[in-house]
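Q: Hi! Curious about what Mor transcription activator family protein looks like structurally. Here's the sequence.
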Amino acid sequence: MGRYKNGKDVLPQTLLRQIQQYIDGELLYIPKQSEERAGWGQLSGTKARINDRNDEIYAEYCKGQSIADLERVYFLSGDSLRKIICKQQQNARITSGS
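A: Let's find out. The predicted structure is below.
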């Protein structure tokens, strides 16, 4: 999200007064008009890095790494790792068509 702009600098006075009736002195996010917004983590690359990490976790698990070992390597809880592994297994089944 970019820097905020002061409403009195960018909005007509009548519109500013109308908005103040609903939200006076608080921050307000106004989304872009375009429906083609980037999804979470797509622009920063975070989503891709997490997907890569999850692929690594699943591959290590399939090679025999225990949940306890994966907890120490990835600094995630056992529950989080089990969710990742379960989701990766489902994705693998979908991809292979089984």
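A: A fun detail: The mean pLDDT is 89.
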